[in-house]
Design brief:
The protein has about 375 residues and is of the alpha/beta class. The chain has two domains: about 15-35 and about 280-360, Aspartate Aminotransferase, domain 1; about 40-270, Aspartate Aminotransferase, domain 2. Helix content is about 40%, strand content about 15%. The protein is built from 13 helices and twelve strands. The strands form three sheets. It has a seven-stranded mixed sheet, with helices on both faces. It has a three-stranded antiparallel sheet with strand order 9-10-12. A two-stranded parallel ribbon has the order 1-11. About 45% of the residues are buried. The model has no long low-confidence stretch (mean pLDDT about 95). The structure holds pyridoxal-5'-phosphate.
């Protein structure tokens, strides 16, 4: 063990950092960002507001980001149809930071968090690096479904302090059966139940949101982000809705002034232009559905998706296909599930590039009896 490793907290020894490749290739479909740039009208509005504020950067930002919380409440009322008091909303530099605040406040030594793998890789990373025990719950190995019965049984065995549900789920793409959420609140009576809805805006019509359950469930938290549907991954703004008492607990662990003045402004102005920013959502969903249809026609096995990406199986050797796509200028994600890759739905042109590359690769790369 090196000298530094000896200094390091024991539970961090041997860990590798989160590291989706950031490569300079033509077609980047590996981190579920939007392929569409921020529209000019939003760029102009943000620039004008920032120009007025820059001389005021000698002062700390509004620690309570009051105007931004009001803008988030307005957005959820119009888009999701659920009304919140700004006191029920919280934000951070990406939803990863609000997830970190949750684990800081509600996890810790002697405490256990339960998630259902495969799900978002940052849930266990945030949990374990904060000294909380992580239990890898399971989904159906073939379909990646999580049934109420299985979720309840696993929660009963673990009796967790924190539960992470991800719906629509990354990396598999589909929304959870809605009944799992309330069943989990019953089956894990000591737990804070977190539903990560990073992809909610892309869900297929009729998919309910856990936001609608918050009024009746004080142990429920719903996290969302502006990184995906809002085409604002670089703006770093994630948020959550929960009971005011939970928000008070998060104030104990956040660093003072964690949201910079420019961050608050960019997000607030973007929310004022929500309709315009969300205009690309339908186009992205169309490309997602096209990927599912065309990969099926190629003989591969895509998972039905409520998100802006598709997980597909049927590959003989996923890392080899990942490399062959990269050699062809298309970057996708190897999420570590055997025989599967994940691809983000981009512009129609990017989708065409990906599908053309796949149809060239399929004969040699497909899993068959001879090529298992
Ligand atoms: C992309 C993603 C996030 C978003 O992270 P940010 O920090 O808001 O950029 C959160 N949860 C899931 C499941 C995601 O896939």
């Amino acid at each position: 063990m090196s000298e530094i490793e000896q200094l390091l907290r024991p539970e961090l020894r041997g860990r590798t950092p989160y590291g989706a490749p950031q490569l300079d290739v033509d077609v980047r479909l590996n981190t579920n960002e939007s392929s569409y740039p921020v529209p000019d009208a939003v760029v102009r509005a943000v620039s004008a507001e920032l120009a007025d504020e820059l001389s005021g950067l000698n002062r700390y930002p509004d620690r309570e980001f009051t105007a931004l919380r009001t803008a988030l409440a307005d957005y959820l009322a119009t888009q999701a149809g659920v009304s919140f008091d700004p006191e029920q909303l919280w934000a951070g530099n990406g939803s990863n930071e609000v997830l970190q605040h949750l684990v800081q406040a509600f996890g810790g030594p002697e405490r256990t968090a339960l998630g259902f793998t495969p799900a978002y890789s940052m849930h266990p990373i945030i949990t374990e690096t904060l000294g909380t025990r992580w239990v890898d719950g399971q989904r159906d190995a073939q379909t990646f479904d999580l049934t109420v019965e299985s979720a309840v049984e696993q929660a009963g065995e673990v009796d967790p302090n924190l539960v992470f549900l991800c719906s629509p789920n990354n990396p598999t793409g589909s929304a959870l059966p809605f009944e799992v959420i309330e069943a989990m609140l019953d089956a894990a009576p000591r737990a804070l139940v977190v539903v990560d809805e990073a992809y909610a805006e892309f869900a297929r019509p009729g998919t309910p949101t856990a936001l609608s359950l918050l009024a009746d469930h004080p142990r429920l938290v719903v996290t969302r982000t502006m990184s995906k549907a809002f085409t604002l991954a670089g703006g770093r703004l994630g948020y959550l809705a929960a009971a005011p008492g939970i928000i008070d607990a998060l104030r104990l662990v956040r660093l003072p002034y964690h949201l910079s003045t420019p961050t608050q402004t960019v997000a607030r102005i973007a929310l004022e232009h929500a309709d315009l920013l969300l205009e690309t959502v339908e186009a992205i969903k169309a490309q997602r559905d096209r990927i599912v249809a065309e990969l099926t026609a190629l003989g591969l096995a895509p998972v039905p998706s409520d998100a802006n990406f598709v997980l597909f199986g049927g590959l003989a050797d996923a890392p080899a296909t990942w490399q062959a796509l990269l050699d062809d200028g298309v970057l996708v994600r190897d999420v570590g599930i055997a025989h599967h890759l994940r691809v983000t739905a981009g512009t129609p042109q990017e989708t065409s590039r990906f599908l053309a590359a796949m149809s060239r690769l399929v004969p040699a790369h497909m899993m068959t009896k001879e090529n298992p």
